Amino acid sequence: MNQTNIIAHRGSKGTHPENTLEAIKEAVRVGSDGIELDIHLSLDKELIVIHDETIDRTTNGNGRVQHLTLAELKQFDAGSWYSYEYSHCRIPTLQEIFCFLEEVDYEGLVNIELKTDKFSYPGIEEKVVAFVAEKNWPFTIEYSSFNYQTLIQLKALDDSCKIALLFEKTGGNVAFLSPDIPINMWHPKLSWFRRNSLFRVLEKPVRVWTVNKSEDLQFCFRKQVAGVITDYPQKALELRNKWQYEGV
Ligand code: G3P
Ligand code: MG
């Protein structure tokens, strides 16, 4: 049986403030096979780890990431919105996350999602490929995006890189699901996978998001998907290991 990899969504989003160092630390602590995080570009062109285009929801500040410098972004509290005990959390850069993962010798997968579907952030693809190439990181790095053009640019910059197309429904960027298109993996929304995996032959490895409920995790394990992207990596790992050994 093919084992399904457990990938921590925005770190361990269900138990810690998403996309912060604390959430990434937790993902490592529980033994996640992979970690997914989201990146944007700041005004001074730093690679910033955050989900939204603005800092409004996940910090005590407001404004667009692309309108703020790194120094400005660092002033805000990125943890209290989740729980007061995380008030020390700041918005991290990709470099800070990678340095931590290097320090702890993390050997899993790091899935960098480029959030270029609302703003294109000109130059973000070059920036991330150059940053990744700076070192021989102990972990595996792959890219995903809802923006197919971003993935094609990444591939043009580094032919050896692995790219995954994110999609929610048939139509839109799913038009690119042809096996001839040089994407390596499909990253569909759970609702799409629930419907389509019943009758559709899935030609590429699939990692499904966001899979949190036990019944959905078990459905994905039964389908032997390559990975699940989950807010609760510890729970998913426990369930996957039980499923693997006991078949329940
Ligand atoms: O990579 C899967 C998932 O992160 C895609 O959606 O909005 O959570 O970034 P979102
Ligand atoms: Mg994401």
Chart the SSEs and their pairings.
Elements (H helix, E strand, L loop, with lengths): L4 E5 L11 H9 L4 E8 L5 E3 L20 H4 L20 H10 L5 E6 L9 H9 L7 E6 L2 H10 L5 E5 L17 E4 L1 H7 L10 E3 L4 H9 L4 E4 L2 H14 L2
Parallel strand pairs: 1-2, 1-9, 2-4, 4-5, 5-6, 6-7, 8-9
Antiparallel strand pairs: 2-3
SN-glycerol-3-phosphate (G3P) binds next to strand 2.
Q: Which series of helices and strands comes N to C? A: EHEEHHEHEHEEHEHEH
Using the alpha-carbon principal axes, give the shape: globular
Radius of gyration: 18 Å
The fraction of residues in strands falls at 15-25%
Give the number of domains.
1
The number of helices is 8
Average pLDDT, to the nearest integer? 93
> What's the CATH H-level superfamily name?
Phosphatidylinositol (PI) phosphodiesterase
The top level CATH class name: Alpha Beta
Q: Give the names of the bound compounds.
A: SN-glycerol-3-phosphate, magnesium ion
From the 3D structure, determine the CATH topology.
TIM Barrel
The tally of strands reads 9
Brief overview:
This protein has 248 residues and is α/β, with parallel strands linked by helices.
Which descriptors would you attach to this protein?
TIM Barrel; 9 strands; binds SN-glycerol-3-phosphate; binds magnesium ion; alpha/beta; 248 residues; nine-stranded mixed beta sheet
